[in-house]
Amino acid sequence: MGVLSLIIKREFISKVRNKSFIIMTFVSPLLFVAFAVLVGYLSSLRSDMKHIGIHDESGLFFSEFKSNDLFNYTDVSLIDEKILKDSVSLKAYEGILFIPKFDNLKEYENGIQYISDESPSLQFVSDLEKTMGNKLTRINLTNSGIDTLKIDEAKADISVNLVKASGEETVKGLNEIKIAIGALFGYLIMMFIIIYGNMVMRSVIEEKTNRIIEIIISSVKPIYLMMGKIIGTTLAGILQFSIWAIVGGILMLIANTVFGLNTSSPSMDMVSEMNPDLISTIQLYLKEIAMLPIGSLIFFFLIYFIGGYFLYSSLYAAIGAAVDNETDTQQFLFPVIAPLMLAVYIGFFTVMNEPHGTVATIFSMIPFTSPIVMLMRIPFGVPIEQIIISVILLFATFIGIVWFAAKIYRVGILMHGKKPTWKELLKWIKY
Amino acid sequence: MKNILEVQNVVKKYGEKVALNNVSLNIPQGSIFGLLGPNGAGKTSLIRIINQITFPDSGQILLDGEKLSQHHIKHIGYMPEERGLYKSMKVGEQALYLAQLKGLSKAEAEKQLKYWFDKLEISDWWNKKIQELSKGMAQKIQFVVTVLHQPKLLIFDEPFSGFDPVNANIIKDEILELKKKGSTIIFSTHRMESVEELCDEIALIHKSNKLIDGKVVDVKKQFRTNTYQVGILSNEPENFKSILANQFDFQETNFKSLNNELQLNINLGNKSSNDLMQILIQNGEITHFTENIPSINDIFIETVSPK
């Protein structure tokens, strides 16, 4: 095992010392935070107040519109229609709401116009419709002799409490938290595989084109070199990820205090302004998150991370060994990336809707997609036997793939010149 | 003499292609063994099998009488034809790393490196990166990492390619010194003059088969043509040639000489050199008389050219 640790050490040091690695490590969190600050800044900019003129010939509706930060409603019922239209063109008003006078209340339902140069947002239109619709309903009710106050009193809001069979209470919306946690883990695995798998591949190609490979494998078995390379690169990757998390966190904190920008979710003073109901809901959420099996989540994250990452990075190593330069890797990379992408899509679309549906269950068993799909399912509670089958399949495939990759690797690293075909790769296994 | 390496009936196939067809070789301890053959003959395949980079389909290899296994790696030093080192790694670190992979402790590796770097006067390269060195300089580093762990068996594939004549000589002297210290050296090359100069034994591999092997002297004896190169000053050369033609086959030839003599290649046939001598003495003054000894180059070309 002495040689393995030597190789791991060299790979780690050579990665970490690499200039582009150092730059990436420290520039990425800077960029990330800069983007976050920019987005926070942009979203904190108040949009300009919009002036809306209301030409209400009926006199029924204007009082229903309350001006606020975003919209200022002006009564322009006395101004001529033609002048108002010109004023829209002249940008004096964002738009004019024309409410004619009808004798039959029914006619209001289709008789109201909104005139503007720029098409209004859907939200705005639906707000207009709701405001006037409510008013009209009330008028209709009053006209039918129904006491609207009584109706208001009689209105009831029901909120169903979700309870698990085991008796724990849960909160609506917790599913979003679960999917977010699962998605975060799944996404981390995918990013890690793509970034550091590629790094492994490039490093194999480098040794091959350098021709040092023949000297190394006259001293150590190719599989040690391959595994050492993968592990060394992984350690460098974990270091880089940790630095990203720490530096990114610190920078975020600095950005928050210096710019005072709302770069993250609701700030504390907003929470204190919220009504006590909301606070208790948030507390319930936090309690729920605390009740999620964090320990087992992290445990399974590590299991699937190791299985999935090694599975894929040995494939990357095999590809690196099979080709002479990076441009030749494309045709071999596609089949490797495809299942990863598939897993992420299934995770985000299928698991979110139906965490225990057939599709989600099947793909959480297939070793090439299980690290991502299963991790997304686990926060929803997966039967232990499914996890066991999935982990066994993953590690059995992992061993098979490492064996296969090592074969390709052993032959490939000594092959120079022409780009091999898939058929030739399969033949190499028999060498 | 004891054999350090015995290759026994080794067969290696790559798919349908046979790279080594039942090759057997014995390499005596302390010798310099020339492994010869045209490109693609199977030399590199054999060398890779000896280094356990690949494995034979059948047959076996004994090192020091033991079947080749993982622990023998530290007894073998290998310098491949395609030289290569990590370009962006410092010379010293790289040499240390490669030495440790061969099983040396760090302290031992440092000691050996210091010895060799001093000896080859390259100590000030320690902190340079390979990419800052010239090709010849990198070759020297390569040589050092090959011999550093004092292996019993050294395998050099084209050791002199890429060296200027001065450095090639330095490396040649180092190889001879290693031999003196007891190492056995396998030497794969196309440069026949260095084979003549250095090798005690040779084997010639052609199209996956071993065609010739043995001591250089024995191989040459096997290929001797029984022809002598003769120079003679004769008063009547035409008359002499007709007398000679009665008993011997000969052709006219050319070699460097200060005289304006008749220059001939004469085949002894079933007669002895003394018989030839007698005829020569009777017909003129002998200025030159040597056996045509086949060079390794001649043997190589004769063996591998299509007949």
UniProtKB/TrEMBL annotation, chain A:
Which UniProt keywords are listed? Cell membrane, Membrane, Transmembrane, Transmembrane helix
Pfam families annotated for this entry?
A: ABC2_membrane_3
Q: How does the protein associate with the membrane?
A: Multi-pass membrane protein
Could you tell me which species this protein originates from?
Paenimyroides tangerinum
Q: Keyword Cell membrane on this protein?
A: yes
GO MF, any single term? ABC-type transporter activity
> InterPro entries from the entry?
ABC-2_transporter_component (IPR051449), ABC2_TM (IPR013525)
Please state every residue range assigned to the domain named ABC-2 type transporter transmembrane.
Answer: 19-406
Where is it localised?
Cell membrane
| Keyword Oxidoreductase (UniProt) | no
Q: Which residues cross the membrane?
A: 21-42, 179-200, 238-261, 289-312, 332-352, 386-406
Q: Which GO terms describe its cellular component?
A: plasma membrane
This one is known as ABC transporter permease
Automatic annotation (TrEMBL), chain B:
Q: Which GO terms describe its molecular function?
A: ATP binding; ATP hydrolysis activity
Per UniProt, the keywords (alphabetical) are: ATP-binding, Nodulation, Nucleotide-binding, Transport
InterPro entries this protein is in? Answer: AAA+_ATPase, ABC_transporter-like_ATP-bd, ABC_transporter-like_CS, ABC_transporter_ATP-binding, DrrA1/2-like_C, P-loop_NTPase
Stretches assigned to coiled coil: none
Q: Which Gene3D superfamilies match?
A: P-loop containing nucleotide triphosphate hydrolases
The UniProt record lists the ABC transporter domain at 5-232
Q: Does the keyword ATP-binding apply?
A: yes
Task: Note the PROSITE patterns from the entry.
Answer: ABC_TRANSPORTER_1, ABC_TRANSPORTER_2
Output the superkingdom of the source species: Bacteria
One family from Pfam that matches here is DrrA1-3_C
Family (UniProt):
Belongs to the ABC transporter superfamily.
What protein name is recorded for this chain? Answer: ATP-binding cassette domain-containing protein
The opening ranks of the lineage are: Bacteria, Pseudomonadati, Bacteroidota, Flavobacteriia, Flavobacteriales
